[in-house]
Amino acid sequence: MRGKFDCFNMRQRLSPDYYITGILAHDRLVLSQAITLVESQLAADYPLAQAVLDGVLAHTGNSMRIGITGVPGVGKSTFIEVFGQHLTAQGHQLAVLALDPTSQRSGGSLLGDKTRMENLSMNPSAYIRPSPVGNALGGIGHRTRETMLLCEAAGFDIILIETVGVGQSETVVYELVDFFLLLMLAGAGDELQGMKRGIMELADALAITKADGDNGPAANRAQFEYQNALHLFPPTGTGWQPPVLTCSALTNAGMADVWQLIQEHQKLTTQNGHRAQRRQSQQVNWFRELLRQRLDGQFFGQPGIRNRMNDLENRVRQGEILPGKAVGELLG
Amino acid sequence: MRGKFDCFNMRQRLSPDYYITGILAHDRLVLSQAITLVESQLAADYPLAQAVLDGVLAHTGNSMRIGITGVPGVGKSTFIEVFGQHLTAQGHQLAVLALDPTSQRSGGSLLGDKTRMENLSMNPSAYIRPSPVGNALGGIGHRTRETMLLCEAAGFDIILIETVGVGQSETVVYELVDFFLLLMLAGAGDELQGMKRGIMELADALAITKADGDNGPAANRAQFEYQNALHLFPPTGTGWQPPVLTCSALTNAGMADVWQLIQEHQKLTTQNGHRAQRRQSQQVNWFRELLRQRLDGQFFGQPGIRNRMNDLENRVRQGEILPGKAVGELLG
Question: Greater confidence, A104 or B185?
Fold first, then answer.
């Protein structure tokens, strides 16, 4: 039913109070409408969106923010389906945001496929929402952080942010969360194809998925190997040494361990101040990113500029013109 | 003697031809003057600098561009001193550019210390030049790429770009080179403190330094461990599997191996097209970075904007204001 309202472009503009009151009353319909509002690309929606965010600000920041990434096929959705049930069974209110870099191309979305997270999507303690990735020049345009704040204000105490882990979306998610979980398949090889280099070193933990049946020994071997490898990485600077676990969405094995681990991480980084520090630095980065998006928007909003830019990039790529000169031509 | 001219701020402006002819005649004095010109922050110098770069463009791109990084204490200068002598002994003309992120703070430079690279600095086949890192907002402002092009036009067929490996300078260097070498000390632990996470996965090879005397067995162990770890990393996508070597600037051990390796990498990536592809993508990134710098320059050049920005960042950091609102205040 929600989807109907999300796609309803010609909606009337309501008062900030309508949204704020509804969100703080944990009304999911209003939450969905508010998310649609903050995701809006219409300049006219912007002041209202800001007013709503301002109005709920005092009620945000109290959730555990967890990022989950991994290459296609690693079993992210299945993991979240089972892990999410584990969390709600313990009384948590769970919001799942799927950062979806494909939606800008296809107009579709990760969650368009109705078979994903079938149980979780019917769970009254869970709320699932795709977060489209726009194509702002010079960066990924998205409103996932704003959506996360709205969900926190609406009473969700755990936010899972999923990304398919292609392109730049992992670093975007890393900038949003307190804990970044990388799902991996057993055996170093094909499944690493497509994983961005540098991502392993961002992870707060690795979980080897599909550790069940015949795959068990391979998963254990992978756990041992990755654990050794991670010891050779530079330290995180937070006193936390990223561990490697195994889990199975089929047998539920390891789900409690992953949750236990995330809680330990939160305890440690809360005590030593790194959690607050990470969030503060994320806030500042978010400010800089928004400023950049607005400045880019002013520049790239000029008529014809994108075509001229593409043309110049091609000439730069072919070595026909030096970048400095190309910039000069573009800026006139 | 060169230093005198590099620091000569009140120099008169000469014709593009003076620089172009001098550079193509491999005149080092003129090369140094041209580098000072492209490094100039004066807007009035910009058209001349562009004209010089344009004039030498056809003579650039023919060197091997090698980046070298590692934490302080790993022995970068000593490595380059010995490795550089190895290269020039084989008839190569070597330019060493030191990307220096400290110079913006202290006004000093890595190479201010005259004891560094003593032999190489007197070697007639070598040219050593620090490349200051400016403090352009929103990115590292520097002219290392332009300096590299000038050196190529001046006949240097190998460019070594060194960075102390703190902050963002490694990724800057990675964007400049064909081959990125990470120097490491034996034993995972203290020496990794200060190394940026994510950097290991950018490396085309690791070299364990100080593999001599009592340190030999530890270096061999480290080589074995890192080699195993690197196999667990996502593939580079170029058909190249980053190897781990050991070397010693004391005994010269491994220097020939490192050079051999870099040549193999060049051969492979030239044949499979990845070298050209990497350079093309670097060109486009350079264009985007320059465009960004110019746009940032326009914005941050406004009087008082930096103070207002700092003030807003502090309020954002403390959670007193949402970034979206702060951006609105800044843009007015």
Answer: B185
* Residue B218 pLDDT: 92
Distance CA B146, CA B131 (A): 10
Q: What is the pLDDT of residues A152-172, one digit of tens each?
A: 999 999 999 998 766 677 788
Q: Say how far residue B33 (Cα) sits from the centre of its chain.
A: 20
**Which of B192, B232, B324 lies closest to A50 in CB terms?**
B324
Measured between alpha carbons, how far is B106 from A302 in angstroms, rounded to an integer?
A: 40
The Cα A27–Cα B206 span in angstroms is: 55
Q: What are phi and psi of B178, to 5 degrees?
A: -85, -25
Torsion of CA B150, B155, B161, B162, to 10 degrees: -110
SS3 assignment for B151-171: HHHCCCCEEEEEECCCCCHHH
| Rounded-to-integer distance, Cα B115 and Cα B13, Å | 33
Burial B127-163 (b: 16+ CB within 10 A, else e): bbbbbbbeebbbebbbbbbbbbbbbbbbbbebbbbbb
Residue A54 CA to residue A264 CA, distance in Å, equals 32
Taking an 8 Å cut-off on Cβ atoms, the answer to whether B192 and A284 are in contact is: no
Q: What is the pTM of this model?
A: 0.82
List CB contacts of A293: < 8 A, sequence separation 6 or more.
A136, A138, A139, A141
Which residues, at least 6 apart from B140, have a Cβ–Cβ distance to it below 8 Å?
B101, B133, B134, B168, B169, B172
The position carrying tokens 């020039």 is B88
Of A294, A296, A313, the CB nearest to B287: A313
Question: Phi, psi (5° rounding) for residue A245?
Answer: -115, 170
A319: chain B residues, CB-CB within 8 Å: 61, 280, 283
Residue A180: its chain B contacts at CB < 8 A? none
CB contact residues (below 8 A), chain B span 141-180, against chain A: 146
Q: Lowest mean pLDDT of A103-107, A154-158, A189-193, B251-255, name the range.
A: A103-107
Residue B319 CB contacts under 8 Å (≥ 6 apart), including other chains: A61, A280, A283
For B123-167, the pLDDT digits (tens) are 999 999 988 776 544 344 578 899 999 999 999 999 999 987 666
- Is the pLDDT at A104 greater than 70, yes or no? no
pLDDT for B105 beyond 50: no
